[in-house]
Specification:
The structure is a homotetramer. By secondary structure, chain A is of the alpha+beta class. Chain A has helices at about 5-15, 70-80, 105-115, 155-165, 190-195, 215-225, 235-240, 260-270, 285-295, and strands at about 25-30, 40, 50-55, 85, 120, 125-130, 135-140, 170, 205-210, 210-215, 225-230, 250-255, 275-280, 280-285, 295-300, 305, 315-320, 325-335, 340, 345-355, 360-365, 365, 375-380. Chain A has a seven-stranded mixed β-sheet, sandwiched between helices. In chain A, helix 1 (about 5-15) packs parallel to helix 3 (about 105-115) and helix 2 runs parallel beside helix 3 (about 105-115). Chain A is globular, with a radius of gyration of 23 Å.
């Protein structure tokens, strides 16, 4: 039906909100139309920082993804994602018989739409080496002419150097990916160690899609590398994630940034102020996961008390989760409610025996190490 | 299965959150269990006041409702309603062959559960006179012994006086209800005028369930009576309201209160700081509807601009709705986006020609008179 | 608002479907109203028998439930349940200070509404003895005057005899219920054995709410007693079950009946043609579970084939689930798709190596014994 | 993450259903994964014919669509659409700087995936002439080498002839599309009349996306042309249609076919056995809409009766909708329920005064002419 510039039409529709106009002789039935709106993922500020929702790993038809670049901007807009990065493979272009390769071409095509829709678009690419060492994402590059397409082992270092030369922020992707494994296991590789020593590695993708790479979290913590979580989406977000269900969101990196800009994201990435968010879980450095928890969850004052048949006085509190995150708590120390599930935007009743200063809980929906949850104290 | 005190069990379950325990030889399949949580209806503070969600009109089996009183507390807890009042009919008890009448008996039975679940329970009753004059709710009563059961016209004034004597907050219910009408129309009645003159009438139920009583809004505004919206629920909330759909809520009164207490609610009702909320619509005094709008909706800074083919510079803004309310705007003055639908917890893009100080919109999802929407200025 | 006979209003509303009328001066906003409709739970006929959805265990305010009887009829109507039975406790009436007891009073009050709404209402009661032996439901009673209220052990046999005398269909409720247990375990009791020997026990409640009583299933199978599943609902169905989610249903007994009548249900119960359905699971005699599976699931003709790199020819089939049941299959024998999840009203692709006559699957979402799933052969 | 052939991976995932495997050191959190299943759109057979769900108008990145061809197959599979056709523009290729044009290239790329997923893929193209005369879809073509790319008026006839020469089934697209209009109105054009006379026009797209082209329906009926409804989707189906809501479906053509094959679809199209389905509405020849209604809706036997206070006997019936279609009925003749809404897979209660043979209803959710609904008789 439409013989106009695609991107323009899309962004216009978005701007207009609803389009219920009736042409002469054409009646519109808009009951089933998807309403245009940008969903807000509710997360309060953390210590004066905005919590930006970012996805730094995705593909389009320009390499092996299934969508035109504008779709990624639409998806981000609808889902309330603040920043995305197209990270097309440098070395791998299965659509090349049909689509002319170009690592920053997807950026170029989507740039205007992103600007109009207030989605931050960060130039990036995926350096897709053989395994090992595997794949690395390079963010904040500016030029795709000197990237190394030759994927022979001999060129691995040059390929990394090509993005280092552009002052990129570089992270190792999905270290536990099958192909990366040596005899069923994945390890911290000499190649990666060398990058790390030379300060050419800045972060690790601890969560890729639905997979939590457990060793990767510990490596990041031990070496003070930035914790990253991404979709690595090739298909539609809506085909991989069950977005129709309440509370479902794509995997992403929560970036605690000074403002909502690409520059502030870079600063935060370099300082490591991130938490990966996938499914109901949070992954990150203890300090950041704790800050996030405290920004989202608050315990009210006692509103009721009751004495039981053993003459013990119990106090009642409301524990509120003012965010779209999910927290599951299990009591570790003290006498009180054993298990609490804090669904997005909801509260639960917590009871505690009188005379205690606090209750200690393990937040089992968080990982501050591959084998450790955040522990918090609720002051009564 | 359960041979224990009903209320106790229910409140315990709520307190516990989830109950996934496995008895010996009994396997639990909890996939389809409704998760226990108190939903938070997100509305920011308005000028330092909390916005409490209140429903001051409902029935239980003690008169002509279909549920035991505890269900009303559960419903309120789940939906995030802060305060409710059982308003059993004084004069009408169709279940009396089976259920012993008692106007405050439902309060008595639910009181403990309400306390444990942090639901404010306000003593009330419905004075159900013949029509005209019809029905009146009396809140904050304390005794049901001297209420007037005789519903003859001759006793109408005494019936009101009986709740006036208890220092009740009194409002006229659903003035446009069919039975109240005289020849298809409803009017401001001499009986009501007398109550008003004698300061025995303090508010009007402008919305009852799904019905907006248009004249009632104007009467409330012209006489400075408090605007009230209630469910008047007899059945289950879930059977009347399509709660399964996102954004659906019961009809209620939003009370701008100094704190979350029955006392603060009374003070706010007396000062008339309320807005009725039903379906997608808000009803109230212009000042309060405006305050609510301004607390919920904010216009960001321009993030992009574009010059069109007529050489006009257009600026782009994001208009955010940080609440669970719904706002629909239509442009009245200025050059910008014509129509904007702000769904709960979402934002839209607004464009405006450069060089204007503001855009004027009619918020068509609000009523500040039966025939008038709130008009707001968005400062660019 | 309503001063008319409650039941009458409700049934009228249901009959009318939608009520969007506008009184003079009263505007209706019906967007959030729950649409009136009877949901159809789609299950094809099984060997010429209708599969009726039945719930034979529930309570109202007349004993320890939280709703007036009409609500149970509404719930059944909305959810597409064909038959229900109020089974008020004979011996336990915690609401008796407020509500006049009467074991068939709930039936009486709801009878007319049930008739108008085409819900089959079966007279029943719960004989609530101390534990052991525990509770028994008696269906198809006709008189509640001679039931035994005295719950002393000495009267246990007389209490059963009182319903035997009314020619009731009797089943043992939730045998694994905590209170029934002796030192953490529950057993086939001498009391029950005697009932069984004297042909006074006809079925066992194998599933009660969310709990699967594993031993009870084996007892039913070994003694040819009828397998029953019920809600034992006290609260609202919508508060216990997450009905807002697609595919969620209450626990029930699927009765394979000759027609849709109380008589046909009795005949089927006596013949044991039932399957209990709770969450995603089916529980019953192997024969009936198999019949149900075969009525619901069908394998299409091969529609595609492919030869892989080991020169093996693979054929493609579509496996369809024409019901609202859920089936999960795991391959036991043959070369084909290992795991198949058949969601309600959907199909999956099944692939099988060529040259096989059939594939054998375990339907792991069924229990034909406490430790055994149904096994089926898919003929290729 | 994936360095393999895209289409292969996708189809494998689909075949497997769920993929919950855990690599060493990688933990999978699949709670938010979209379950793989093919939804069945439930419509019973109509007079021995299968009702196939078809969408004959869509675009991919090869012209002005936003997705790689495989996405269209996935969408069809998930939604339960039986047959689709890529109809890339012959004359319009805005992506040509990046994507090598080729009208059947999208077919070629998706063919294998369609075969594996049992989606019928029909070769087609859109002949996109200037306006007037506008656009025409040609189905069942086999070669894209001789299509006419030159879109000058002079070549309009040759462009049509090029697809006529391939024995295509040709329909006129969205006749009321703005660009097609002459001074705000659209008319049956001489060009189209000539095509019709020469038997080169076989159908008309009466519904395109959310727009019902009213005149087009009458033209189709008056000239015995086949009624067609399509999405003309450029974006994702999930971005245009609110698929998360129950009952929402894309616009499509329901084809009553002898079997599920491309050949049977062609035969049915040539015989005109189609109904267009968009939002809650059906559009088509009276005979077909009636057949469809009768296949889906059935009136049960009277199950109850009641005499009112005017001594009139009323009988009760259940009206069942065994399909995923939606029907809204308004009483035209007789004494019975005035308005009935039959939601997908549900039933309603219908009451009728005794002594009548039938009730006549207008099915206002159908159009058998631009200004006429189907009228049906319900035999009592």
């Amino acid at each position: 039906m439409r013989i106009k510039e695609t991107l323009f039409i899309i962004s216009s529709l978005m701007t207009l909100g609803l389009t219920a106009q009736t042409d002469d002789g054409v009646q519109r039935f808009d009951e089933f139309r998807n309403p245009k709106k940008r969903n807000i993922i509710q997360i309060p500020e953390v210590k004066g920082m905005q919590v930006l929702k970012c996805d730094f790993h995705m593909h389009t038809v320009f390499t092996d993804g299934h969508v035109w670049p504008n779709v990624r901007v639409q998806e981000a807009w609808k889902e309330g994602v603040d920043a995305i990065s197209f990270t097309e493979h440098v070395e791998y272009t299965p659509h090349k018989d049909d689509v002319k390769p170009g690592n920053l071409r997807s950026y170029e095509l989507a740039e205007n739409m992103a600007k109009e829709n207030n989605v931050l678009l960060i130039k990036g690419t995926e350096v897709t080496r053989g395994t090992p060492p595997g794949h690395f994402n390079a963010l904040f590059i500016h030029d795709d002419h000197n990237l190394v397409v030759d994927n022979s082992v001999a060129m691995d270092e040059q390929a990394i150097q090509a993005v280092v030369d552009q002052n990129a922020f570089i992270f190792w992707n999905h270290p536990g990916w099958k192909a990366t494994q040596i005899e069923g296991s994945y390890e911290w590789l000499p190649f990666v160690e060398k990058m790390y020593q030379e300060k050419k590695l800045h972060g690790i993708e601890v969560v890729n899609g639905f997979g939590f790479h457990k060793k990767a979290l510990d490596w990041a913590l031990d070496r003070n590398l930035t914790v990253i979580g991404n979709t690595d989406i090739h298909n539609l977000i809506a085909h991989d994630y069950d977005l129709a269900r309440e509370g479902v969101h794509r995997t992403m990196t929560l970036v605690m940034a000074k403002d909502r800009s690409a520059e502030a994201i870079r600063e935060a990435l370099e300082q490591g102020r991130t938490v990966a968010w996938s499914s109901k879980y949070l992954f990150g450095k203890e300090e950041h996961v704790r800050d996030l928890f405290e920004a989202c969850v608050s315990l009210g004052k006692p509103y009721h008390h009751k004495t039981n048949n053993k003459n013990v006085l119990t106090k009642y509190y409301e524990l509120k989760n003012d965010s779209d995150l999910y927290f599951e708590l299990e009591l570790v120390e003290g006498e009180g409610t054993k298990k609490i599930v804090l669904y997005p935007g909801s509260s639960q009743i917590l009871t505690a025996e009188d005379g205690q200063k606090s209750l200690k809980y393990s937040v089992v929906s968080t990982y501050v190490r591959s084998d450790k949850h955040l522990t918090i104290d609720l002051t009564l």
